[in-house]
Specification:
The complex is a heterodimer. Chain A is of the alpha/beta class. Chain A contains 13 helices and nine strands. The chains are: A alpha/beta, B mainly alpha.
């Protein structure tokens, strides 16, 4: 009884204090609020809160960002609220969302997303061609699957720069390469897709547009046969780990000397010392491995549209984009050439002009299933 | 529903009604959330068959058993379940005997350590085991100290990895049931057997084993069902193929987008577990009957 009374008092005091503080800080400023939502992983939301937002508020003192981590509840309710506000004319209380606008068909249909013009967001002019993946919102960071290798174990002249060279390298170095199960991590899925591009003439455009069963019938068996052929040369004769991180761990322990990995996870792993210092990243020169871009989406009825535009402009500035590369290991959405020279130099081997985007959709299930049924089954169940 | 209570006085009539009212929510919940959907699924696998003109058809089961991969996965699941359950008994029976007959301080420590996995979530356990078992992991490093690592082949991403994980996960629970069963054996029974000249082995075979058979059966059933349906451990520690039914079902449903096939797999899994479940019910009801 006594305990609960005490804790009640403490709670009331706390609330009172918060109210007082809140009012005083509200009174002390005439800055307008910019509501930013992100449902990203911890590395992304931490980066927003500790790096991007303080830097933005310093560069644009007239705005104050109210950041909401929507990972638990998801972005759906906020977008629904914004769509509803579109008809009622209310303020949806959201200015910027860290989402791919195409993932929300209802919002696209309602015409919710607002694509700023270059006049409104000057830095949009710097957007690289590869980053222009949708007309609904500007991209602000990319990530791509690439090859990570340990330079202590792989001689510089042996490093594969094309998919063909990688195939040869895997055969010549049995047990030294691995990728993860395609349904368990994008680093594995995009490696399998790269094999598919390889057997279909390195032409990602072939897979754009409407689903075409004929392509599946023609090229899937070729790609899967290639991967099945490589299976005995993989780590432990084809022991595919169940995710991006388990692959990085095998690499970190030195058990394999080359893997397929997400650029951001690999760069962050190197920066934090989780991956060996001798880790090097390389991208194929014939056709890079697939990846994707993430957008900053603005609802057209945002109450503080100028604030939203300023935020996007800051994110696409050299300062914002350098932070994307060095803090979260992402790829810039603007041309690499605009970034500081030392950043460019550090990532020289992974800089690509193009990031093939896998269409996904109906092409995915058959590829995963085919992989499990023809590539993975080579493992002896009694081993 | 049980038979109507015979007409008695008013208060007598109320009491069982209250009891029924108290047990009604869990029973309704089990029916609504478990038995009814399971039955629905079972009926659907027989009636809702693509290309069939109505009536009952076993085509969905036929295609399951004609597919080498699904059969492999089912056989693999049974193998893993049986082997891990046997392994559990090999580990837990001696431990339970030790804990039953030792009153030393060390026994208390052993028990606390053995029960520890009960408080470790499966995903943490799996990652810990990956670190421990993987090549150049803790185990290999340790073996290396004694120059014994030459023959070491990591069980990580192999069937043995699943068995080790499932055994580790199942130890506390099995141990609790077995020690409880052994504690029910009266000390005087063992002492009198000793008095008439029985040796330790005879005591074990003739007294302890028969008297704990039922708790062993209960432990077997619950472990079998739990291991059969396990997901996290085989997913993180096991190979990409063959896979256990839990992972196979999830993949068929979500990745391959074939809900009907996943349903067939689920019903087959359910039926396998049902057989063992009935064994469990038999063991428990007989125990109740004996106690009366």
């Amino acid at each position: 009884m006594r305990l609960s009374k005490t804790s009640l008092r403490i709670a009331l005091l706390g609330i009172a204090l918060l109210l007082v503080l809140g009012m005083s800080s509200a009174a002390a400023q005439d800055r307008t609020i910019v509501n930013v939502y992100s449902a990203g992983d911890t590395n992304i939301t931490d980066w927003y809160q500790n790096q991007i937002i303080p830097a933005f508020e310093a560069a644009y003192p007239e705005y104050q960002v109210q950041f909401t981590n929507s990972r638990a509840a998801g972005d759906e309710p906020i977008i629904e609220r914004a769509i509803a506000a579109l008809t009622t004319g209310d303020d949806p209380l959201v200015e910027v969302m860290d989402v791919d606008p195409r993932n929300f068909p209802a919002a696209v249909e309602a015409g919710l997303w607002y694509m700023p013009t270059v006049e409104e967001v000057p830095n949009l002019a710097n957007l690289s061609a590869a980053a222009q993946v949708t007309d609904l919102s500007p991209s602000y960071r990319g990530s791509q699957v690439l090859i990570a290798y340990n330079s202590e174990l792989v001689a510089p002249e042996d490093v594969p720069t094309t998919f063909n060279e990688l195939i040869l390298w895997i055969q010549n170095n049995p047990g030294q390469f691995i990728y993860c199960r395609p349904d368990r991590g994008g680093s594995g899925a995009n490696f399998v897709r790269r094999a598919l591009y390889h057997v279909s003439g390195n032409d990602p455009a072939l897979w754009q547009g409407e689903f075409n069963q004929q392509l599946v019938d023609t090229y899937y068996p070729l790609a899967l046969d290639l991967l099945a052929y490589l299976d005995p040369f993989m780590y432990d004769e084809g022991a595919y780990p169940a995710g991006n991180n388990p692959v990085l761990e095998l690499f970190a322990s030195g058990e394999v000397s080359m893997i397929s990995a997400w650029s951001d996870q690999a760069i962050q792993g190197i920066n934090r010392g989780f991956l060996p210092e001798t880790t090097q990243l390389v991208q194929f020169t014939d056709l890079p491995m697939p990846g994707g871009y993430t957008q900053l989406s603005i609802p057209r009825n945002a109450g503080n549209l100028p604030g939203a535009l300023a935020f996007v402009n800051f994110m696409l500035s050299v300062e914002g984009q350098t932070s994307v590369v060095s803090e979260i290991g992402g790829f810039p959405a603007i041309e690499w050439g605009l970034l500081p020279a030392e950043v460019q130099e550090r990532f020289n081997d992974v800089i690509t002009e193009s990031v093939p985007l896998w269409t996904g959709g109906d092409y995915n299930p058959a590829l995963t299933e085919g992989w499990y049924n023809t590539v993975a089954t080579d493992i002896d169940p009694n081993s | 529903m049980a038979a109507q209570p015979p007409a008695r006085s008013r208060t007598d009539w109320r009491q069982p009604l209250l009891a029924y009212a108290l047990i009604a929510p869990p029973i309704i919940l089990v029916f609504a959330l478990l038995l009814f959907p399971a039955l629905q699924s079972f009926v659907r696998t027989l009636v809702d068959v693509p290309g069939s003109t109505g009536g009952i058809s076993f085509a969905r089961y036929q295609s399951f058993f004609e597919n080498q991969i699904s059969v492999n996965n089912l056989v693999f699941t049974i193998q893993m379940t049986v082997l891990s359950t046997i392994g559990l008994f090999i580990v837990c029976f001696p431990l339970a005997l030790y804990l039953r007959f030792s009153n030393s301080r060390i026994a208390g420590w052993v028990q606390s350590i053995a029960l520890f996995p009960l408080f470790v979530p499966g995903i943490m356990l799996s990652y810990a085991l990956i670190r421990f078992l993987r090549p150049r992991g803790m185990l290999e490093t340790f073996l290396n100290l004694f120059g014994a690592a030459d023959g070491y082949e990591t069980p990580y991403l192999k069937p043995l990895g699943i068995i080790i994980g499932l055994i580790w996960e199942g130890i506390p629970f099995t141990l609790l049931i077995l020690t409880a069963g052994l504690r029910q054996v009266d000390n005087s029974l063992i002492e009198s057997a000793r008095d008439v000249g029985a040796n330790t082995l005879q005591i074990f075979w003739r007294i302890l084993l028969p008297l704990t058979a039922r708790s062993a059966l209960i432990a077997f059933c619950l472990n079998f069902i739990g291991n059969f349906a396990s997901y996290t451990v085989p997913y993180l520690l096991g190979p990409a193929a063959p896979q256990m039914m839990g992972i196979f079902m999830q993949r068929t449903f979500q990745e391959f987008q074939r809900p009907q096939e996943a349903e067939t797999q689920a019903v087959i899994t359910f039926l396998m577990c049902l057989i063992v479940g009935l064994l469990y019910v038999y063991a428990v009801t007989r125990q109740r009957a004996d106690q009366r």
